[in-house]
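Complex record, two chains
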Amino acid sequence: MTTEATRSPLDPEVARRAAALSYRARSAVEGLLSGMHRSPHRGPSVVFVEHRDYRPGDEPRLLDWRAFARTDRHVVKRFEQETQLRAWLLLDRSASMAWGGFDADTLGDEAIRKDAHGATLLAAFAYLLLRQGDAAGGGGFDVALHDDLLPPGSRPAHFEQLLARLARPAAAEARTDLAQSLRAGVERAGRRGVVAIASDLLDRRTEVFAPLAQLVARGHEVIVFHVLHRDELELPLRGAARFVGLEGEAPLEADLDVVREDYLREVRAFVDEARQSCATAGARYLLAPTDVPVERTLAELVGRRRRR
Amino acid sequence: MGFTLPLALLGALAVAAPILIHLLRQRDVPTRSLPTVALLRRATAESRRKLRLRDRLLLLLRALAVLAFALGASGPWLASSRAFDDGRRASIAIVLDDSMSMARRESGERLLATAIARANDQLDALPPDSEVALVLAGAPARLVVPRTRELARVRRALAALPDTSARGTALSEALELARASLSGAAQPRRVVVFSDFAAHARLTELPPTRGIEWALEALAPAAPANAAILEAHAAPDPTTPGRLSIEVVLRAPEGRHALEVVHDDVVLGRTEVGVEPGVEVAALVHPARATVHVTPPPVPDATVRLVIEDALDLDDARGVLLRPSAALRTLLVDGEPHPSRDRDEVGFLARALEATPHDDGGIAFRIVDPDAFAPSALDEIDVVVLANVATLRPRDAESLRRFVEQGGGLLVAVGERVEPRVLRAQLPWLPASPRAARALPEQTTLRSVGRLPTLDARVSRVVVLEPALGADVLVETAGADEGAPVLVRSTFGEGRVAVLAIPVDDAWSELPYSPGYLPLVSELLRDLAAARRAPSAMLSAGASIELAPQSLVRAPDGTVHEPVDGRFDDTAAPGVYRVLDGDDVKSSFVVASPASESDLTPGSPPEVTAGDTNGTRSERRRRPIDPWFFLLGGLCLLGEGWLRAR
C-alpha cells in the first residue's frame, strides 16, 4: 500500500473551510431521515404545498378553519416534507487520473495528482454533506464500479470508511469506461439523491454521457467534477518530445512549439464538449483543475445553487 | 570556376554534422507521459505536415550553411568572361564569329549563343560614353553596327542575330573591318574577338596595327567528332530512265549510317552507307561516298540527310536540285560552223560551257545553224547567243525581240560575217550601235569593268560600238587603245541584251585563252538570263541573288521573304530556297554549307605580341566569389534562426 493510500484525502484546513459551506439539493430527494432537503413526499414542515379534502383519520389540527368558513368544506393543509440527502460520490480511478503533471517526479509528494485532487474534492463534499446531516457513500471506478462501493451513511465511522476508499490510488494501466461505470451506478443509486462524479472524462466515446441522462431521469441530481491537471490544460513544455498515454495509447512524437496552439484549441473543444454534454443530459458540470482549491470548486457549486 | 584552397573543401564533409544531429535529435527526444495524448494526436494531425516541412527546411538550411562556409573558405573564383574588365572608357570593336562552325553545341548550348552572351557581358562592363562597333566574321565579313555610343543599338543587333548560319569564316577580313572601324577613335582602342578559332579559319596573325589592345576569346578548345555531307549532286540514272542518281560525298565516323533523300518530309529514297576506317580527316571521321537512287515526283529539289547525332547538325543535311532544267539553257546560233571544233565559231564557247561547274546545275547548251534557228524553240531557252550571224530572217528577228521583251537573254557577238548596218537594221534595240570594225594597236588588252572577272587578254580588232543611253560597258579596251567599249549590256523589256564587239573565238583576240574567259562567259550568261528565269543554283551562305520582279522566296524554315530591289540576300541558313510565283514554285536554289566549316579541329588564336601591334593578349581573370558564399551561409543561418523561433 502506498503512502497515498494511507494518507487521508481531507486536510483538516480544507475540511474547516468546507464546513463553512452549505449544500441544498436542487431537486427533491428521498431520504429515510428528515433533513434540510426537499422531499417529493408531504410532511411536517412550514412550507405549505396544497389543500386536500379531509378524510377520516386526518389530524384535526391540520384542518384549515378559514377555508371552512369561506367554502363550508372541510379541507386539511399539506406541507412539504424535508428529508435527508443521500449522495453517491464516485471517483475515477483509471490510470490517467494517477498523473501529477510533467514535474511530478521532481516535486515528489508536492505534486498534485488528479486522483488525489478528485478524492479531496469528493471528501470535502462528503464532509460538507455529513456536517448538515446528510448521508454520503461511494467509491472508485475505472472500467467498472469497484466492488467495495460504500452505501451512503451519515455516521462518523462511515465517513472514515469513505475517506479510506477515496484515498486508494488509481490502478496502473487501468482504462476508463465511464459509460459502463455510470450504467452500474444507475442500478446502485436507488432512491433519488445526488450522484457526484470526479473524473478527467478521458473516455471520448460518444455514448459516455448517456447514463448521466438516465440518472437525471430517475430523479437524481448529478454533479460532474471535471478534474484536469493544469499541465494538461496549458502544456507548459517546449521543444520536441515523445508522449505516451497512461491508458495504453500509442506513443506520439510532437514538437510542442509547433503544435501548442492546436493542442490548446483541442483542449478547449474537449472541455466545451464535456460541458455541453452534461448540460444536455441535465447534469451539472464543474471544471476542477488541480491547482484550484477544492473549497473554491465547492463554493462555485454551492454558489450556483444559491443563484438558482 | 576554381579554388584557391581546394583542401578547404574537405570542410564540406561537415555537412554530415547537421544531418547526424537531425537524426540523433529525432532519436533522443525525451519521453513524457501525458493523459491527454489523444487530444495531442488530433492537434498534431493538422500540424504534422507543417512540422515535417519545417524540420526539412531547417536541415536544408543548416546543411547549406555548412556547405556555403566550406566553399567560401576554399577561396572559390570564377574565370571572368569579360576580356576588358578594368572599367576604363574605351572604343571597342566586338568581332563575333557567326560562321557555321559556331553553330556546334557545347554543353547543350550553341557556341554562337555563348559568344552573344559574352558580348553582352562585355557591353555590361563598359562605362558610359564608351564606343562600340560590332563586326560579324561569318563570310562575308560585315560591319553590322559602326562605332557608336548607343550600346542599346549593339544589343539589339546581337539579339537579332540568327542562332545558326551556314556561312564560312572570314576572320581575317573581320579583323580588318574591326581595325578600320576604330580608326580615328580618341579613346583607348580595343578589339575583342569571340570565335572558336577553328583551324579552317587559318588566322595566323593579327593585322599590323599600333595602339590597339586585342583580346581573343577562344570558345571551344575541344574537337568533337562531326559528320557532314560535303557534296550532293543529282544526275539522270544512266541505267534506268526517269530515275535520278544522287551522288553524295560525306564524312562520318566508322560504321553504317542511314542516308535519306526527302522532299517536304516525304522520303524519296534511302540507303545505308558503310564508312570504313581509312584516312582520318578530323576527329574520328573518315571520308566516304554513296549513291542514292530515287524516282522523284515532279519536284525541283530535295534534301539529302545523314541520320546521325553529332556536334553540328547543320551540315548533316544538304539541299540538292533534282530537275535537270536547273541548268541554264542556252542556244548557240553558230554563224560560222566548221567540222573542226577548233575552227568552229562557237568551239571555244562550247568548251567553256562544258567546263562550267555543275554544282549549280551547270549550263546546258545546244548549237544550231542560223538556218535551223526556230523561233518556237525559244520557249525552252534562257539565253540566245548569236555568234557571228550575218543576217536573220525578219520573223526570226521579231521572235528574238519578243523573246527578250518577255525576259530572255541575248548575246550578240560580232565577227567577220556580221555586217553592222544589217545588224543595226534587224536589231535596232541593241544596247550599242555597231559600226565598222577597226584594228587596234598591238599592246591593246581587254579590261573588265565592275563585277565581271579580271581579264588578261590581248585584242587586235574590234567593231566600234556606240553605247545607247543607260547601257553598261562591262568590258573595254586598255593599254595602247584605252576605253573602247567591247562588251555593252542593257535591259530591253523584261530581258537583257549584250553586244560583244569581238567574236567569241580567237579570231580577233586571245580572250578564249584567258583564265577569265570561262568565268566571264558563265557569269555573263547567268546575268543575261536573270530576268527571264529565277535561278536554280547553288549559292554560298550570305550570297546575294537576283530575282525576277514580284518573286517571293520561301526559306528552308518555311518563312516567306520578299526580295529588296530585285535582290535577295537573306541566305544565311543552309537548305533549299524556293522562288515562288504566287503559290507556284517557279524554281529553287540551294544554299550549301562550306565543307571546311564541318571540320571542327581547333586552331590556336594568334599570339598577341608587344611588337608593332602594341597590344596585349587578354588573360582569363580570376574573380573571387568567396564573399558570396559567406553571405549565403550567413543568410542560411539567419533563416534557420528565424524558422526555429517560429
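Note: The two ends of chain A are 43 Å apart (CA to CA).
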